[in-house]
Amino acid sequence: MRSRKFLKAEQAALVWDAPGLLAGVDEAGRGPLAGPVVAAAVILDERRPIRGLADSKTLTALQRERLNERILERALCCSIAEASVEEIDTHNILQATMTAMRRAVEGLRLKPAKVLVDGNRLPSLDVLAEAVVRGDSRVKAISAASIIAKVHRDRLCQALHDEFPQYGFAGHKGYGTREHLEALLRHGACRHHRRTFSPVAAALARVAGQVASAHAPNPLHAFDLGFVDDEGVHVQVVVQS
């Protein structure tokens, strides 16, 4: 049975009792302003249970790292895949996320009989699949996928920080924090930024306008980027040129 592309969860009943291997799928990195979106697929081994599996967002970094090791050691198989910044900017973040999820499922060493995907949308898969709203807190295989996807992406962000320390990727992981937006206004975008995301595009437009116009020496400019950061705070950045 082929899953419907972008099927909404409420359009079909969940198939929890289909026989065979179950794969859980989740993503990390839809919201950040930089870096790839990452997806993971995990088939757990019922004979080797893993205690402590939960939505990765509810765990500390240390808890995620420890669980990541246990998942990779005890699961029947795992697969991690990405969709690049170029794919995100070309197709949009939803399409890129679906692509990363499809790649993760296709990368599994064992073929699952069914796939449960976190959220309310499905990638196009040649296997029975269902979307599970809040699946990362309801289905252990999805929890496991959320953890290894998050750990993988956090490590990518550390590598981005090593390459471009001026943006602070190690701390904010690419999200639109005040620090990150200030860095965008000061330094412009690097090749890892998602230029179709409105805060990045707005910051670049403001920088271009600032360079093109004549200003008095050392003015202070308050830029309202019309963006709410990951903590729900409306961001206005003040930069001295």
Features:
single chain, 241 residues, alpha/beta, Nucleotidyltransferase, domain 5, 2 domains, two-stranded antiparallel ribbon, 7 helices, 7 strands, 37% helix, disordered N terminus
Written description of the protein model:
The protein has 241 residues and is α/β, with parallel strands linked by helices. It folds into 2 domains: 9-163, Nucleotidyltransferase, domain 5 (2-Layer Sandwich), CATH 3.30.420; 176-240, no CATH class. It is 37% helix and 20% strand. It is built from 7 helices and 7 strands, in the order E-E-H-E-H-H-E-E-H-H-H-H-E-E. The strands form 2 sheets. A 5-stranded mixed beta sheet has the order 3-2-1-4-5, sandwiched between helices. A two-stranded antiparallel ribbon has the order 6-7. Helix 2 crosses helix 3 (93-106). The model is unreliable at 1-16, 219-224 and 226-241 (pLDDT under 50).
Task: Give me a quick take on this structure.
This protein has 241 residues and is an alpha/beta fold. The chain has two domains: 155 residues, Nucleotidyltransferase, domain 5; 65 residues, no CATH class. The chain has seven helices and seven strands.
